[in-house]
Amino acid sequence: MRYFTLCSLLSILLGALPVSSDTPAHIAALYRRLDPLSIPELIAFHELYPETPEGESAQASAWALLTGESSRRSATLGPLFSPTLILSLLAPFTSLQFDGACDIGDEELELAERLGRRLPNHSLKGHWIISKEELLALPPDEVSLSRGLLITLFGGQPGGERLIRIYEALLDVMALQILPRAPLNSSPEKKIDAINHLLFSRLRLRFPPHSLYSKEVDLYTFLPSVLESKRGVCLGVSTLYLALAQRLALPLEAVTPPGHIYLRYRDAGQTINIETTHRGVDLPTTRYLSIHTRDLQVRNIKEVIGATFFNQAASLWQRGLAQEAKAAYETALEFLPTDPLVKEFLAYLTLLTGNLEAGLRLGQEALATPSGYTIGEGGSLEDLLSNKVDLEGIEAIYMWVDESRESILAKQQRIKATLDRHPEFRGGLFHLAITHLQLGRTREAAAALETLHSIDKENLIALFYLSNIHAARHDYPKAWDYLRQAEAQASIERLAPKVLKELRSALNSVCPE
C-alpha cells in the first residue's frame, strides 16, 4: 500500500510519466524529470528507489536543500533525518488535498522544529512568547505574525500549545521549501516569485466561491483554516503570505483599501504590489483607489492580527451571534486601539447587547478620531447618535445577503421599514439604492440616491453613482450635471479620483460636454 501511495504522489508531482517500472533506464529517466529544487519530489523518489545511485543522489540533494548542509551527519539534527518522516511532513504541501495539520506526529513535529531553527523569524522576540499579554506588550517590529495570531486563537485552551507548535512547524516547512528557489540573500523579486510558486502553483491556493465565503468569511480568514482548506479570502491569504515573508527576511507592507487588503514591497527605488486574490500578481496602485479614498492605509503586524478578529466579528454578527461578535470586536480593538471603524462596530454591538453608556462612549470616540484615509466616515454612526435611525435600522443595512434574489429582497424590505420610521437615515437610503441596483432596478436606485442627495448635498459617493446611473439610462444632461457636482465636491475634498476622470472620458465619448 505504501509503495502505491508513493507512486501516486510522485506521479502527481511529475505529471503523466508512470513510476511503477523499476528498470535502470526508467529510473534514470524518472530521475532526470525531477525538479532539482523540489524537496517532496526528491524525497518521494528516494523512498521508491533507495538502493539506486539516483535514489541516493536524490536523498543527498533533499538533505542539502532542507538543511543547507552537505553532510547527512548533522550536529544540529543528529539521527532525526529520516526520509520517511520528511515525506510525511511534506505530504500536505504537494498538490494533494491537505488532510489537516493535526495529523502530524511527535517525531515529525520535532524534526520540523529543528529544521526551522535557521529561519529568521526565530530571532524575533515574538517567536518565543507564550501569552497574549506578552504579545500586546511587544513593539510591532518584534511581533511574529503566526505566533501572535495562533496564541490569540489557541492560548490557554486544552491542547492549544501543541496546536501552536504544529501550525508554526508547518509554516516553517513551507518556508524551507521556498529557500532553495530564493535563498535569504536573494532579491525581493525572487522571493516573491518563489512564494507565489509555492502558494498558487504547487499548493493551488484559491479564493473561495462567493456562496462559501460570504456567510462564513472568518472560516477563510484565520490562518489554520486557510492552511487546511487551501482556500482564503484576501486577509487570510495575505496573513499566510506575511507569515512566510517573515521567515524569508522579506519586508512587506500590509495595505488596506476599504474592505480589502493587499501586500506591497517598497523601497526607495521600486514598489511591487502583491494581489493575493489573483495569484500574487502586481496590480497598479490606482486599482485600489476608489471614489472616496484619500490615501491607502498601511497596517503593521499587530494590526493585521486585529483585522483578522474584525473579520470574524462581522461574520458572527451577520449570523446573529451578537455576544460572540462583541467579544471578537473587543479582541480586534486590543490590536487596533485607535481604529475608528473597530470602535464604531463595537459601539453598535455594545448597544445591541444592552450597555448603553459604554456604547455611546465608544461611538463618540469613533467620531472624534476619524482615520483620514476615506471621506464620509461614520455617517451611519452620526445618524444613530442624532436619533435619525435606531439600532434595528443599523442592523438592517448590515444584514447579510447571498447571491439570491430572495435575500436581497428581504434586506430591502427591512431597509424600507427603517426608512418609514427614519426617512433621513443616509445609510438606509444608500443601501436601499444598492439593493435596487443588485436587482437591476436603476430607476428606483436613482430615486433613493436623489433623496440622499437632497439630504446630504456633499455626498460624493451619491453624486458619482447618480452620474453613472443616468449615463446608463442615456439621460446625459443629468449625468453631466451630477458629474460636475461630483468633480466640484472632490476638489473641495482635495481628491482627484481616477474613476471621475474615467467617467468624464466615457461621457465625452457618447455625449460631448
Q: How would you describe this structure to a colleague?
A:
The chain is mainly α and 513 residues long. It folds into three domains: 1-96, no CATH class; 97-299, C8orf32 fold; 356-510, Tetratricopeptide repeat domain (Serine Threonine Protein Phosphatase 5, Tetratricopeptide repeat, Alpha Horseshoe), CATH 1.25.40. Helix content is 58%, strand content 3%. It has helices at 2-14, 24-33, 39-48, 53-67, 83-90, 106-115, 132-137, 145-154, 160-178, 188-202, 210-213, 223-229, 234-247, 301-318, 322-335, 340-352, 356-368, 379-385, 391-397, 405-421, 426-438, 442-455, 460-472, 476-492, 498-510; strands spanning 253-256, 262-266, 271-274, 297-299. Strands 3-2-1-4 form a four-stranded antiparallel sheet. Strand 1 (253-256) and strand 2 (262-266) form a beta hairpin. The longest helix is centred in the N-terminal third of the chain and has 19 residues, at 160-178. The relative contact order is 0.05. Residues 1-5, 73-79 and 94-101 have low confidence and may be disordered.
How many distinct domains? 3
Task: Name the shape in a single word.
Answer: elongated
Give the end-to-end Cα distance, rounded to a whole number of Å. 75 Å
Under CATH, the topology of the largest domain is which? C8orf32 fold
Per CATH, the class of the largest domain reads: Alpha Beta
Summarize the structure.
The chain is mainly alpha-helical and 513 residues long. It has helices spanning 2-14, 24-33, 39-48, 53-67, 83-90, 106-115, 132-137, 145-154, 160-178, 188-202, 210-213, 223-229, 234-247, 301-318, 322-335, 340-352, 356-368, 379-385, 391-397, 405-421, 426-438, 442-455, 460-472, 476-492, 498-510; strands at residues 253-256, 262-266, 271-274, 297-299.
